[in-house]
Amino acid sequence: MFGTFQNRTLGIVGALRYPYRQGGFIPTTSISLGDRSMITSASPENATAESRTLPNKIVIVGGGFGGLYAAIRLTSLFWPKGKLPQITLIDKSDRFTFKPLLYELLNNTATEEEVAPPFSQLLAPYPVRFIQAQVSGVEEMSSGGPEGNGKVQLSDGGCVEYDWLVMAMGSQADSRGIPGVKELAVPFNVYEDAVKARTALQRIEAAGNPSSQIMIVGAGYAGVELATVVSERMKGKARVQLVTSDSDILDGCPEGQRIAASRSLAALGVEIITGCKVQRLESSTADPSSLPTSCSAQLQTADGSTISYNVDLLLWTAGSSPATREGRKGLPFPVSSRGQIEIEPTLRIRGNQRAFALGDVSRSDTDAHDDQSSPSVLPATAQVAFQQADYVAWNLWASINGRALLPFRYQHLGSMMSLGSINAAVALPVPLPLPLKTSLLNSPLGPLLEASGIKLGGNDPENGVTLEGPLAAVIRRAAYLYRQPTNEQRLNVATSWIQQALIAVGTAPASK
User: pLDDT tens-digit profile of 406-441?
Assistant: First the structure.
């Protein structure tokens, strides 16, 4: 699940008077691999005595929620005179992907500028240099001192030097080694995936085949959200199936969301196939009438039998892995068997005083948690990356300025999921004692709560209050508006949503 409400981790703001920098904006520098003037060669002669007098170079690898938000947060801190670092953000894409809104691209309730704004646009008001490049490796600082700059190696042979490093590459789709999945399935993890899925849906619509079939594999948050959005868009023009190896959808998720999702899927006519695993995918493009995304999916049932389905599109949400997994042998850091970088509670990489890691590529066995609200293992969600970005920014500032580092504390703020253009389910970790729940339900407020889509859970925080329906959809949108990375982007998104609302009620002409 990608969602979050707001970041309350800045209790460290009040406790430590989080040092924000005041002042004007410095334009960002954005370069691509074609511009070599700001990328050094791999030659060791570049490290000179003069470098000791230059600003600290902070390089952030990965422009997802963790990396981008950490870069922006760093610029807002108060840096003593002469200590403002040179911040560089590296990402293989030229666009930031606001993952929770990817679904809105499929049902045309959000524009590409809202879901995937260019880094050059987002970083324009900030003193952050952006480089679009594929990272191929990392070299540690040779001595740990100012003369021994580390290097981030780029795929074309160039490199970017750093004094301080942040690894924040996020996750990638994982085919789990199942034959045909990598070649034939369409993942749903980044902007490019959403564009490919949308194009495939347009082809299915254009074909007008009443027997068209779309399969979504994986019934976690992403799979359920995809199934509802796709089914809503197709409006009965294609059979939509949701496949899971579990006995039910949303395994391990709050009960209120599971009930709301089941109700929505049933209303939209989505066929749920439980207890089945994908064995292999085979191409079916030999059929002249098939689409480029057509394939044959072979599923294994719980009793060991095999079922085969011919589908026009298979969307894969059944697995993801850290983006560092494939290249973990080339990293100079301790990594887990899954390829996650081992970190200390302060998010600093184990054994390295000048490197940090956060988000999906990081792992710690000694995370400091809030006993009331934190799970024993941090989920791979944007909510975690949001919160870790603040800690990484502070701990970088503290490291450079001789202040104490803070151990990361995760605060679970609930979860949100889309169930269609005007439908959602929001789970709040608010425990209700049984007497209070019974009293509320039996009071005059009971019918009003039910009509408003507010479901009361129990004393377990994981099954607290659930909001469902249009009210939840509004709250979800408002939360994601607040969570946009910059004020400028918030204004752009808010303006777009207001225009869409006016168009929907017929008080403004649709833009061309």
Answer: 999 998 888 999 999 999 999 988 776 666 656 666
- Residue 240 vs residues 229, 232, 366: alpha-carbon distances, Å: 11, 10, 42
Helix and strand numbers (H, E) in the chain are: 14, 27
> Is 494 a residue whose pLDDT tops 70?
yes
**Buried/exposed 463-476: b ≥16 CB within 10 Å, e otherwise:** bbbbbbbeebbebb
Q: What is the pLDDT of residues 76-99, one digit of tens each?
A: 999 988 788 999 999 999 999 999
Say which amino acid occupies 139: E
Say whether domain 181-318 belongs to CATH 3.40.640.10: no
Q: Say how far apart CA 158 and CA 40 lie, in whole Å.
A: 6
Q: Where are the domains positioned within the chain?
A: 25-172+321-410, 181-318, 415-504
Q: What are the angstrom distances between the C-alpha of 84 and each of 24, 31, 140, 225, 391?
A: 14, 21, 22, 42, 18
Our measurement of the distance from residue 266's CA atom to the centroid of its chain's CA atoms, rounded to an integer in Å, reads: 27
Q: What is the pairing mode between strands 368-369 and 409-410? A: parallel
End-to-end CA separation in angstroms for the chain: 33
In this structure, the chain runs to a length of 512
Domains 25-172+321-410 and 181-318 alike in fold? yes
Q: Which of 183, 197, 163 is nearest to 57 (CA)?
A: 163
Q: What is the CATH number of domain 25-172+321-410?
A: 3.50.50.100
Element (H, E) at 424: strand 424-428
State the Cα–Cα distance between residues 55 and 58, nearest whole angstrom: 9
Q: What is the token pair recorded at 81?
A: 């005179």
φ/ψ region of 120 (left if φ > 0, alpha if ψ in -120 to 50, else beta) reads: alpha
Q: At what angle do helices 221-234 and 191-207 cross, to 10 degrees?
A: 30
Give the residue from 421, 432, 397, 429 showing the smallest Cα distance to 477.
421
Looking at residue 430, its pLDDT comes to: 75
Segment 105-124 shows an average pLDDT of 93
Please give the average per-residue pLDDT across 120-131, as a whole number: 96
Instruction: Specify the pTM.
Output: 0.83
The residue type at 4: T
